[in-house]
Structures are given as structure tokens and as C-alpha cells.
Amino acid sequence: MIKKVLVSQPAPTTEKSPYHDIAQNLGVEVEGLEAREFRSQKVNILDHTAIVFNSRNAIEHFFHLCKELRVTLPEDMKYFGISEKVILYIQKFVQYRKRKVFFGSSGHWPELLTVMAKHKTEKYLFPLSEGTSLEIAGQLDQKKIKHTECAMFRTVQADLDEDTFKNYDMILIFTPVGVQSLLSNFPNFNQGDIRLGCFGDATAKAIEEAGLRVDLKVSGSIAESLGNFIREENSK
């Protein structure tokens, strides 16, 4: 029976969050790279004609970094999002125009890749978390879609106390860094009956390499998949 879930994301600030009733903080936070750190990658944002976002975090840090670098984005810059919900967040920073905004239909990479393939002449820039790789990079190369990956933010660990996992039936982890945080804080962590859920293949691989069991792996809506998983488990 799953009654309490620990989500490895900062706690939600509003009741509109899908995790409002279940989210706590595993000790993982997100911070943006400084301008000098970004420059060391020798990536010129304006060499690209389209930006691809897989999360609101990516959008937030991309535009903040552009401001710090004093980069003025051209009016004809195109924006692609893993989902409509994600890409709508750019309205916080730029005027939203449908003709320049594109997104996948289901929140999964294959759908967005299909959309991008219709715009092969674009030069795509992917803002990512430091230390992570783009899962669809190989598929982009196969389709001869020009793209650049760059780190614009990083996930950092926060200290946890010994009582963190008491009474939790499930832990939900979003990135490989979340797995590192778990093991760094609790090197003797014993999974036992605790279910581990994760987002994406890279995180699943990190969990398995740590000798732990993956009980739920999703690539679309975490909240929806989590709800379905809990209902299924609790009906047993």
C-alpha cells in the first residue's frame, strides 16, 4: 500500500502543482550557471535559429542567462517544447506567437522529434542540466538535424537528516543527480519495500547501476503515471 511519496524536486509553491498533496524535498535543488561558466563552453546562442526546451527549469535559466550575457534574441527565433504546457511558460519572458512556437502532442520526445524533422533547416540549441546528455541526440544525427547541447543550469545536493525516509512508501527521482544525492546522503540506503520511480532512461540506468530496483519508469507525465501506478499498487 502506497500512502506517502517523496518527490525529488523543490516543494511546490502553489496548490496548482500536481504534486501538492504528495511532494516533499529530497534535497535536490536547481541553480543556474554563471555567465563565465557558460562562456567556457564556447557556444554562441545567436548561431542558432531555434531553442528546444524540455522543462520550465530550462526556460527559466535560459532567459536569465541571456539577460546576464546581454543577448538580445531576434524576433524570428523559434521555440520548441516537449509539450504545450512547457512551452507556454516562455510567455513569462517573450511575446508568445503561435507561428514561432512548436511542441509535441504528448510530452514525449518522439512526437517532438517528428515536429522538429519538419523544420530541418533550423539550427537547434538544447539547454540542459550540467552533466546530463540528450537522449535523442542519436536520432537527431540520423535525421541530419543540426543541433547543439549546452549546460545552462545544474542540480545541486542539499543536506538531509536521518529521518527523511521514515514513513515513505515510494521515492520519485527525476535525474541521475537525484540518484547521486540519495546515495551521497545515505550510502547504506536499503530499498527494501520502498518503490523507486524515475523519469527517463538515464535516471533508470543510474538507479540500476546503484544496485537498486526501478518500480516505475516514465517519460511523459510523471503526475499522471504516478497516479495510475499508485492506484494499481493499492488495488492489489
List keywords for this structure.
236 residues, alpha/beta, six-stranded mixed beta sheet, four-stranded parallel beta sheet, 8 helices, globular
What does this structure look like?
This protein has helices at 35-39, 56-69, 84-87, 109-117, 137-142, 176-185, 201-209, 222-234, and strands spanning 5-7, 28-32, 50-53, 78-81, 101-103, 124-129, 147-157, 170-173, 195-199, 216-218. The protein starts with a strand and ends with a helix. Helix content is 30%, strand content 20%. The strands form two sheets. It has a six-stranded mixed sheet, with helices on both faces. A four-stranded parallel sheet has the order 1-8-9-10, with helices on both faces. α6 runs parallel beside α7 (201-209). It contains eight helices and ten strands. It is globular.
Short description:
The chain has about 240 residues and is an alpha/beta fold.
Rounded Rg: 19 Å
Q: How far is it from the N-terminal to the C-terminal residue, by CA?
A: 8 Å
Number of strands: 10
Work out the strand percent: 15-25%
Number of helices: 8
Q: Sum up the overall morphology in one term.
A: globular
What is the oligomeric state here? single chain
Helix coverage percent: 25-40%
Question: pLDDT average, as an integer?
Answer: 80
By secondary-structure content and strand pairing, the structural class works out as alpha/beta
Low-confidence stretches: 10-28
